[in-house]
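Sample A.
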Amino acid sequence: MLGTEDFIREAEESISQKIPAPGKAVIACSGGVDSMVTAALASKAIGSRLLAVYVDNGLMRKGEDEEVEAMLKHMGINYRIVKAGPEFFDALENVEEPEHKRKIIGEKFIRVFEREAKEFGATFLLQGTIAPDWIESGDGIRDTIKSHHNVGGLPKDLGMTLVEPLRDLYKDEVRDVARALGVEASERQPFPGPALAIRCLGEVTPEKIAIVREACYIVEDEIMKSVKDGKDVRPWQYFAVLLPSKSVGVQGDRRAYGYTVAVRAVDSVDGMTATFSKLSISVLNKISVRITDTMKNQVNRVVYDITSKPPATIEWE
């Protein structure tokens, strides 16, 4: 990669050339570092001709909507929030296969953006696609590890011209650009485009998403408390996964039958490889107790994933 300042200058010039006035563009802003950096670059390049769209698809983390809106306001970017949860849950009904989930979500996102683009008068779609996205999504030469929604989910009849200024960067390089631009999301941990849908193994339902949303919040909260207290080093990424099968447990003196939550925390540089984080037993215990206490009638077992990448991927789906 070029030096960070040189990359920023060339990226802005490239965006200006690819989206000449009076052309307008929309960008999907999830609040993650990739999309927020892309939005920041595009806003500097084309100003008010950019519309950032945040889609509340019913699959986001706890407090995500408010946090993303605050960041967009602070950046001074023209934005719109779209409530589309029912559309996504309807589209995902009875779907269990991970690749099918990703492609449905990608296609649904694009349809939402097409509606917003039409209203805004945009003919360009900006995306925060980075190198691992298209590498892992595969092509005629590479195997598909997992289709990223911004690659594998794009419909062939996309009615807009695609612009991807970060396509050749890796996550650590994107963070460098974010820091140089003063983007608040620079240190946010990665969050997948398909959101909690791929942390809910099997069929996605509002009930299951509510469980994994709360579990993810607890994992993030307890790990950050432990980091603040100096007991743990902050992992590169950390979250919870809801498994589709139930197991027998005990609550009080009664038999319980509940879901299992897997805790995942990894250390990495660019996301292409990763090692599981050696979290302290004390924080793992706090996470387990808090999850099972908070969701007594839903979750009765918590496990910790100690698999590195490879052979596993960071996300479970």
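Sample B, a different protein:
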Amino acid sequence: MTPKAVLFDFDGVIADTENHHIAAWQRTLTAMGWLIADELAVRAAEVDDREFLTDLFTTRDVPVDRLDDWLARKQAVTVQLLRYSPRVYPGVVELVLALKGRARLAVVTGTWRANVQAVLEAAGLAGAFDVIVAKEDVSAQKPDPAPYLLALKKLRLAPRSTVAIEDSPTGLASAAAAGIRRIAVGHRRPSGDWAEDAAFVDSLEPTAELLERLGF
């Protein structure tokens, strides 16, 4: 069956954002008068912002009453960095433009909508996606199927008529739980147990090969 929609994860699939999050945390914490080691900053890119900052405050005996203020500050820095220095993976723009008109497109992500919009606008793809399901849209995040189920509801499509592109075990599990066919993209990450039973591709190029793998 030719897919009626292709659903993209954002971080790690469309955009390489790890360094943006690390830099945003380093700038935010510097404003607090803290210097953090690189390995701690890297962890900040791997876990939820609230979890990271709560743990950091707790280990340093800092009251958490201003937690939301600092989270908002970090998010503002992140959006600024993404807007002025977007890092879209090779093949993304070409694939999205090739899919436009053939299938409906959606972003299903655990990051904030502002982050997604900043990168898509900078990459010239802001009008390419019919649906964006972001962190603020659901109460349960991946690996829960809620983000994908909401995307299907907005698209008014059955799971069997869609395909998801993911880069992580949690994302793949989320799509699988929603009944969606999955493709795991490695980019710089080799195939392995993390890809589970999903079809694996090294990258999102060349476009012709990706279109075939997607079912077009």
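Observation for Sample B: The CA atoms of residues 60 and 215 lie 52 Å apart.
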